[in-house]
Design brief:
The complex is a heterodimer of chains A (50) and B (139). With 50 residues, chain A is mainly beta. Chain A is built from 1 helix and 2 strands; from the N terminus they run βαβ. Chain A is rod-shaped, with a radius of gyration of 15 Å. Chain B has one domain: Roll (2,3-Dihydroxybiphenyl 1,2-Dioxygenase, domain 1), CATH 3.10.180. Chain B is built from 3 helices and 8 strands. An 8-stranded mixed β-sheet of chain B has the order 2-3-4-1-5-8-7-6. The longest helix of chain B is centred in the first third of the chain and has 11 residues. Chain B starts with 5 loop residues before the first strand and ends in a 6-residue tail after the last strand. Classes of the chains: A mainly beta (50), B alpha+beta (139).
Chain lengths: 50, 139
């Protein structure tokens, strides 16, 4: 094996804007600490009640 | 200013030689520069090339090295900073300050021989960010 391209640098953050996390419009998404990495959790839609 | 090329990722280590062995023997790095001292920044430096970027291994140099505190908190070493290129370091510094980010000190000559500045991690989401002026002779 030879060392390949530096593809990306992972940067931990407590909040990712939803448009970046999953293409969902508006607000922000909190990372899920249970998984230790960003898992987009879309905000409830109007009337979703969460 | 627009975000430029990711020039390198700075990796702190207590032993450049041991880190070279990891990149060479474990990961298969084939292009590794000669380590050299950068007294102005209190570090010894070695660049490991990837096809599109570099890993900058940095080891404390001297008793006042800024890396000593980092290694005290992270004895195994680890990612220390990321470095992006900018076309003009003085313009970048002025823009960072105008936007409220804390620039650590004045521009100084970095490991690539071009001027660099560092932006305080508190304004960069917890990550120390280096901005370096793109070398005039390219890469």
């Amino acid at each position: 094996m030879t060392l390949g391209r530096l593809n990306y640098v992972g940067v931990a953050t407590p909040w990712i804007p939803l448009p970046l996390a999953g293409g969902v419009r508006g607000g922000a998404v909190k990372l899920d600490p249970a998984f230790g990495h960003p898992l987009p959790r879309p905000l409830p839609q109007a009337g979703g009640g969460r | 200013m627009t975000l430029g090329r990711l020039n390198h990722v700075g990796v702190a280590t207590s032993s450049i030689e041991k880190s070279i062995a990891i990149y060479r023997d474990l990961l298969g790095a084939t292009s590794i520069g000669e380590p050299f001292d950068l007294p102005a920044q209190g570090v010894r430096v070695c660049f490991v090339d990837t096809p599109n970027s570099q890993i900058e291994l940095i080891e404390p140099l001297g008793e006042a090295s800024p890396l000593l505190g980092f290694l005290a908190k992270n004895p195994a070493g680890g990612q220390h900073h990321v470095c992006f290129e900018v076309p003009d370091i003085h313009a970048a510094k002025a823009e960072m300050e105008a936007k409220g980010a804390k620039v650590l000190g004045e521009p100084r000559i970095g490991a690539h021989g071009t001027p660099v500045i560092f932006i305080h991690p508190r304004d960069m989401g917890g990550m120390l960010v280096e901005l370096m002026e793109t070398p005039k002779d390219g890469h």
